[in-house]
TrEMBL record:
Domain of life the protein comes from: Bacteria
Entry's family note: Belongs to the glycosyltransferase 104 family.
Biological role stated in the UniProt entry: Protein-arginine rhamnosyltransferase that catalyzes the transfer of a single rhamnose to elongation factor P (EF-P) on 'Lys-32', a modification required for EF-P-dependent rescue of polyproline stalled ribosomes.
A UniProt-annotated Pfam family: EarP
InterPro entries in UniProt: EarP (IPR016633)
UniProtKB keywords: Glycosyltransferase, Transferase
Reactions it catalyzes: dTDP-beta-L-rhamnose + L-arginyl-[protein] = N(omega)-(alpha-L-rhamnosyl)-L-arginyl-[protein] + dTDP + H(+)
Protein name: Protein-arginine rhamnosyltransferase
Organism for this UniProt entry: Pseudomonas versuta
Amino acid sequence: MKASWDIFCSVVDNYGDIGVTWRLARQLVAEHQQTVRLWVDDLQAFVPLCPEADASAAQQVQQGVEVRQWPVQWQSVDVADVVVEAFACKLPEGYLQAMKARPRPALWINLEYLSAEDWVSGCHGLPSMRADGLKRMFFFPGFGQGTGGLLREADLLARWRAFEQDPQARLAFLQGLGVFPKSNARLVSLFAYENSGLASWLDAMAAGSVPTHLLVPQGRIMGDLLRWLEVNELVPGQVEQRGALSIQALPFVRQQDYDYLLWSCDFNAVRGEDSFVRAQWAGRPLLWHIYEQEEDAHWVKLNAFLALYVKGLSAPAARAFTGLWHAWNAGSDMAQSWNLLLEHWPEITAHAEQWCLEQSLQADLAQALVLFYRNWI
Ligand code: TRH
């Protein structure tokens, strides 16, 4: 059933808010034939993910999604059948008034941040009544039964498999980025916030017995990287060699290409929310730099995910994996935990694929949202 959707995205910082909403919007159009308007208050953050986009356009269509500049002065528009308020971004007052006046109520969904905490399944899908008579539903992404699931395109795993089974496709993708790794090199991607633990991790990789090729898209970790390298600049494409470690800066690639980067690597360091999920769909070991929250709330989230993720690992591998994640997120010494993780590499690699396959058994988030709407009307 075709419905109209308004997705509201306020860019708090970085690329996560737009990353999630852009991905959801595309999928609703491509797989569920929905009519989607994506309202974004900062289109500058959208362009790196979708380089064809025009940051100054009030209105544009990209991949079937009508992308609208969310104006400071709201101008009235028709209310859609489904209204998605991403990450409690606060709908414009004028839009709320129009929602109240709509003869057939719109389904108002607050799409929440991803968390593996237990309480999520208890709160997913709950309504919240407002004094003005409007009702808002809480929709929680998550990792299991009773949650809204994870964003995953219907053909994602098939495309990932095909890529895995085609070494030429991997080489061609890497060569397109100017990456020519040694045939026995371990390929690692690094997308992270500033991190004082980086130097010790780089030291460990440089001193390693296996060559490592580290790929670093332009971003916030660059300052720490340059300091360790003792260079002023690392332009995209440039490679610096230190011991067994080759470090190469990459351009920030379009969102669809970021998957290929993750699929091409043996290990992915990711951050935030969307890259974290994509690294899980890559079926490879990952390292999550979680987004820091007030009063260390992010540690609870980090440990909730870890508790779930390491369940299928042997106790020593689980300890090694947890140790590395804790060190990275504390910004502390990484050398010992990296070397320990390497001792369990085959087990942790097999587990990453298993995790990916298990997670893919649950309905994806876009599908779950469409179903939620269907059940609601
Ligand atoms: O950018 P992030 O750190 O985003 C966020 C925001 O800080 C947000 O406010 C916070 O609430 C949230 O994290 C938890 O990380 P994230 O979510 O991984 O988003 C990055 C997006 O950028 C993701 O869609 C993948 C994409 N990307 C590319 O398209 N190309 C690239 O080269 C890279 C490295 C990433």
